[in-house]
């Protein structure tokens, strides 16, 4: 178990380093938190943020945490004196995430490639999600997969 964690942390740190060096990172998405904008199995392209420019509400950003990247939509920015906090939320999540600082933000998603090699970029990624509908659809997808798994056993 410890060897797997060490391997994972090396890969995670390598991804953080590549973005810090200005490289575009291409990773496979996992989970339904950004459904339907980013579907599980899609390949996302994360571009580093420039030093002078910050992310804008509506953009999908990648921020760092101990277990790796979180890729969620920036919903608002709160400025309090010299402190700036960024609030994110997955397109099918019930609640927003805890605020992050600029130092935690690694980059922004500039392109998504789904399993059928269809590319999505530009204004499609920059939109306002319908959280309730997205959560309902994800719930239905997960429940139907469980039922199929039981039936096909």
Any overview of this molecule?
Helix content is 26%, strand content 31%. The protein has 153 residues and is an alpha+beta fold. The protein has a single domain (2-151), classed as Ribbon (Umud Fragment, subunit A), CATH 2.10.109.10. Strands 1, 2, 3, 4, 5, 6 and 7 form a seven-stranded antiparallel beta sheet that branches. The model has no long low-confidence stretch (mean pLDDT 85).
The CATH architecture would be Ribbon
Query: For this structure, what is the CATH class?
Result: Mainly Beta
Number of domains: 1
Looking at the structure, what is the overall shape?
globular
Question: Which stretches are low in confidence, meaning pLDDT under 50 for 5 or more residues running?
Answer: none
Largest sheet: 7 strands, antiparallel
What's the Cα radius of gyration? 17 Å
Mean pLDDT: 85
Explain briefly what this protein structure is.
The chain is of the alpha+beta class and 153 residues long. The protein has helices spanning 2-20, 131-151, and strands spanning 25-28, 43-48, 60-65, 68-80, 83-89, 105-113, 119-121. The longest helix has 21 residues, at 131-151.
